[in-house]
Amino acid sequence: MKKLCGTLRQTLRSLRLKFLPQSNTEIINIMTENEISYKILDAAYKVHTALGPGLLESSYQAVLVHELKR
Length: 70
Fold this sequence. Notes:
Strand content: under 5%
Largest sheet: none
């Protein structure tokens, strides 16, 4: 479970960093907590719908991380 939390934490950081400005003149477009939560829940729903129940947690974890990085 700690590995899953660490992996999700890294993925969330990368999601936030994608929207940070590259220079001072760019408009800041940082995702809010609600937007991040929506993306996580949407990805989790897609993964569970596609894979179905009964797999090991590591299988869901790998696919969820892949889905969040897209």
